[in-house]
Amino acid sequence: MKIAEIQPQLFAEFSRILQARRLSHAYLFSGGFGGFEMALWLSQAIFCENPVNALPCGICRACRLVENQEFADLHIIEPEGQMIKTAQIRELTEVFSESGYDGVPKVVLIREAEKMHQNAANALLKSIEEPESEIYIFLLTDNENLILPTIKSRTQVVNFPKNIQYLQEFLEKNEILKTQAELLAHICNSTDEALKLAQANWFLEGLNRLEQFVKLLTNSSNEAFLYLTSLSETFDDKEKQKIAFDLILQLFNQEKLVEEIQKTFYAMKMWRSNVRFESCLAYIVLEKKERSAR
Predict the structure, then answer these.
(1) For residue 100, which of 75, 84, 199, 224 sits 20 to 30 Å off, Cα-Cα?
(2) 88 by DSSP, 3-state: which?
(3) Which of 241, 250, 229 is nearest to 271 (CA)?
(4) What are phi and psi of 83, to 5 degrees?
(5) What's the DSSP call for residue 98?
(6) What is the pLDDT of residues 18-28, one digit of tens each?
(7) Burial code of 184-209, b = ≥16 C-beta within 10 A, e = fewer?
(8) Of the candidates 250, 215, 255, 211, which has an alpha carbon nearest to the alpha carbon of residue 231?
(9) What is the reported pLDDT for 290?
């Protein structure tokens, strides 16, 4: 995604910050839509060999390496499994005390920062409070409420609202059906994520099954209940199940099923507490069935 197109206001704001040389050393990018792309663009500005009015040229060696995520002094941290471990952050703190390979500054991008173990977040906190060298830290999250308050209070929080229209138009230009593009635009936070899902066989099969589930639920709770096993077979891990809940909410919203939406939010809360996926879906169906019997 081109950050200037999907977040034009934030692009203009950060352009002014760069030109005024007022870039802070620690940011929390909240919302997900374009946060990673913005962090990469700002990293290019930090390392660019031929900046134009303080903005990255985009074509020098440093800019190309940053774009490909191969620049030596750009460190990108992602969860290992479901968590960012303390060891990953402690390795970073050692890097912070060293001189940069290609220059003085060092930049750290931490994706899905809400998944940092509490000890990892505390280890990072000291580096944010007392950086030993010229360091820029960008924390990226879809849910800032899961970030430790001590981390949030020491970073500049920037919200990245989703540009649904841009994402839907992008998907349609890439030959994704309009109905699918609309759903994907609501549940995804990047074009890469949306395209990856649109091209996954399990996703298309799962979407068809969820659409059938919603249709059954509006007509026959008994048939919808019997259909749950097939949903569990398709959405067979946590990542897929999260997507299933997001899709269910969008499908219920399209049908204006207000009570079902409320029940789905509660089912998601159960699921996050490690209740089985099928049991959470059964809660939605059984509640519907009980209301129908009254």
Answers:
(1) 84
(2) helix
(3) 241
(4) -150, 150
(5) S
(6) 999 999 999 99
(7) bbbbbbbbeebbebbeeeebeebbeb
(8) 211
(9) 52
Amino acid at the residue 205 = E
The encoded tokens of residue 52 equal 């134009």
C-alpha separations of 231 from 97, 155, 234, 273 in Å? 50, 41, 5, 20
* Position 294 pLDDT exceeds 50: no
Q: How far is CA 273 from CA 191, 267, 268, in A?
A: 30, 10, 9
Burial of 241 (0-12, 13-18, 19+ CB in 10 A): buried
67-78 tens-digit pLDDT: 999 999 999 999
Q: Is 141 helix (H, G, I), strand (E, B) or coil?
A: strand
Question: Nearest to residue 156, comparing CAs of 135, 137, 134, 132?
Answer: 137
Starting at the edge strand found earlier in the chain, the sheet holding 106-110 runs 74-77, 106-110, 135-141, 26-30, 156-159
The rounded distance, in Å, linking the Cα atoms of 175 and 195 is 10
Token pair, residue 162, equals 């989703």
Token digits for 236?
Answer: 């067979």
